[in-house]
Amino acid sequence: MDSDVASTARVTAALRAGETARANALFQDPWAAALAGPDLLATFAAQPPDIQDRASSYTIIRTRVYSALGKPFAWCFTRKDLERRLHEPLLQPEPITLATAA
Question: What Å distances lie between residue 52 and 19, 34, 46, 64, CA to CA?
Fold first, then answer.
């Protein structure tokens, strides 16, 4: 039986492996699938797509933002550095266009 920390690491790895496998992945983690293990990958793959998306969205977005900032861990940032880097074009959201009813 895994410890709580090991279980959390394996679940996070499974989420990262799922993103890595996507054709339009936001990041690549070549070791994620190996860390998660085939049993956990199969468990996630058996879930409906909407459950997979809800389960992984936080981890995927967080990983992408930290990767774009060029730092591996959140505690490596100063507040000033974080604020400056969040204004870079790479991290700016795309404009959303709402269709209006005719």
Answer: 10, 19, 9, 17
* Of 77 and 24, the one with more pLDDT: 24
Contact 62, 71 (CB under 8 A): no
The parent domain of residue 11 ranges over 4-91
* % of the chain with per-residue pLDDT over 70: 64
Q: Answer for the pair 14, 41: CB distance below 8 angstroms, yes or no.
A: yes
Residues in the chain: 102
- The answer as to whether 98 is a domain residue is no
- What is the tally of structural domains in the chain? 1
Q: What is the pTM of this model?
A: 0.61
Return d(Cα 69, Cα 32) in angstroms, integer.
21
